[in-house]
Amino acid sequence: MPSPPPDPLFLRLTGEIRGPFGRKRLRELAETGVITPATEAAEQRDGPWQSVGDLPGGAELFPERARLQFKAREFEHLNQSGTLPVDHRALIAAAQGPKVPRAATAPAKRPGDIEEILRLNREREKEAGLDQLKPQPRRSNRRRRDYLFLMTAVNGFFAWSLFGGWGNPVFSIAGIVIFSIGITWIMYVVMDRY
After folding, report:
1. The sheet that has 16-21: what strands, in order across it?
2. CA-CA distance, 99 to 9, in Å (whole number)?
3. Residue 42: in which H helix or E strand, if any?
């Protein structure tokens, strides 16, 4: 059985002498990679210095670690080359159950094929005239009415404050100009007919 490393040890790390460190602390430093077998150590602060791995029992500070790795992948092959592809029509027929003959007065059964159902729906749309686009009647233009209402109301307020002596006339004139330009741009450039 190897002898334990001497207790305590001084270490020379990054050009500085540190320590003393006991066995437990030396193991922690070795596990975290702070010291290696080539790190210089001594029992006394002034030496003699030698590598930690050369000290009696120094090798026990650096035990061989178990290497962990992922387990090999295992795949279960479900779709073997001998199996046939799934037929959706067979699945639909199996889900609908066994076919029972119907009475002569019963309406004919609609086919379960999706393309056939879509074709029948399309024929009904054509018969009803639902596929024809008709021009929409022109809507009345409420935009002009709203524009004139806003211009009259807001500019009337600014004119009343201008001629009534309320506040600064420059602000009233600026309000008329800015509002008129802004509402015209919003109503006729940004907005669509409504």
Report:
1. 16-21, 9-13, 40-42, 50-51
2. 91
3. strand 40-42
> Where does residue 5 rank: exposed (0-12), middle (13-18), buried (19+ CB within 10 A)?
buried
Specify the residue for token string 């992922």.
70
Q: Is 161 exposed, middle or buried (0-12, 13-18, 19+ CB in 10 A)?
A: middle
- Looking at residue 79, its pLDDT comes to 63
Whole-angstrom distance, CA of residue 74 vs CA of residue 76: 7
Average pLDDT, the chain: 80
Burial of 9 (0-12, 13-18, 19+ CB in 10 A): buried
Residues making up the chain, counted from first to last? 194
Alpha-carbon gap, residue 162 to 176, rounded angstroms = 10
Cα–Cα distance, 161 to 154 (Å, whole number): 11
pTM: 0.32
In percent, the amount of the chain with pLDDT more than 90 equals: 17
